[in-house]
Amino acid sequence: MIHAPARPTQRDFAAALLDSERGVPAGLRAWNGSDPTQRFAVYRNNVVDSLVQAQADAFPVVQQLVGDPFFAAMARMYVCAHPPRSPVLAEYGDGFADWISDFAPTASLPYLADMARLERARVRAFHAADALALNADALTRHLAAPQALAQARLVLHPSLHAVRSDWAVVSLWAAHQSDDPAAIGAVDLDHAESALMMRESDDAVVLPVPLPTAAFVQALAAGCPLGEAAATASVLGGADSFDLTGALALLIRHGALIAWLPPGDPA
Amino acid sequence: MKNAYVSGINHGRDPWALIEALPADAIGEIHLAGFAEDRDAAGDRLLIDHHGSAVDDAVWALYRSNLARLGPRPTLIERDNDVPALATLQAEAQRARDLQSAAAATLKAAA
């Protein structure tokens, strides 16, 4: 009786690439009869290292905060547990911040996950689609009809993202962009900060904003009408009251409004 | 072109035979790239597709042979890691253009 040799399936092969404890899939052989373990190790390293490097490129400040060896080990755990679902590496990394927030070894850096959120939002802003901002004529026309403002829906530029943190991650991020080595130590981390990110002139800019402005943008992005978004922002603002005019002016100045849907229009 | 070379070496096959087996009219564009080099457990060459170095002379030789077979084709040189100075990349692109021009001239003379 003849038994066919065991053939590794693609599933076994792919799983073993990401799990070094699984060993080499059964049935592998090389053209020259050499032990496939060495060849498989090269394959495995190539896959995992390229993904770890992609994370390092996308989260440079997180990497600086924990140091290169720690980051490499941490990112390796993440990529093996959560490999990309898209072949486009720019789309990889959405889950890294949440994963970091549950990662016990970084519990002493409670702001680390928010830094990852900020850096991820920046990458998403950078790669978002282009869109034309509303021109001054259109804006003037909409603002001239105050009775319709509260129910209007503002469509935001696809690159616009808001990040809110209980920690001063916006200042810390900015300090890491500075050439001054004293800048990082000078950041007082223990206060909340928020920022908007969007692409301008082929660069992803980070705009520090008050918390209510970030909340306003998040509410608009979720599809809330203007009046409801402003109310949400005011409630969150507390003592730091919400400046609706200033927030709208900021969005207009940065070309962040791309459509203004009157009441009744489906969003 | 580079994948044919890397796969051929890594699996003990003739890279040119892999390329020659492809139908000429199905080839719309040719990709070139560098590879890293390692050894397997038997000490044989093990090539790693990393897009992080100059196109190897062996790949340029395959490219030249393929242009002689096909005529000029749009060509992409891939370099995703350790990207060097622009002048280095431009020189590499120029080498591809020179080989295309030479192939076109040879085909024209033969026609």
What features would you describe in this structure?
The complex is a heterodimer of chains A (about 270) and B (about 110). In chain A, about 50% of the residues lie in helices and about 10% in strands. Chain A is mostly helical. Chain A has 2 domains: about 1-110, no CATH class; about 130-265, no CATH class. In chain A, the strands form 2 sheets. In chain A, strands 2-3-4 form a 3-stranded antiparallel β-sheet, with helices on both faces. By secondary structure, chain B is α+β, with helices and mostly antiparallel strands. Chain B has one domain: TIM Barrel (Alpha-Beta Barrel). Chain B has 4 helices and 4 strands; from the N terminus they run H-H-E-E-E-H-E-H. In chain B, the strands form 2 sheets. Chain B has a two-stranded parallel sheet with strand order 1-4. Chain B has a two-stranded antiparallel ribbon with strand order 2-3. The interface between A and B is medium-sized, with 13 and 14 residues.
Task: Give structural attributes.
heterodimer, A: 267 residues, mainly alpha, three-stranded antiparallel sheet, two-stranded antiparallel sheet, 11% strand, B: 111 residues, alpha+beta, TIM Barrel, two-stranded antiparallel ribbon, 4 helices, 4 strands, 16% strand
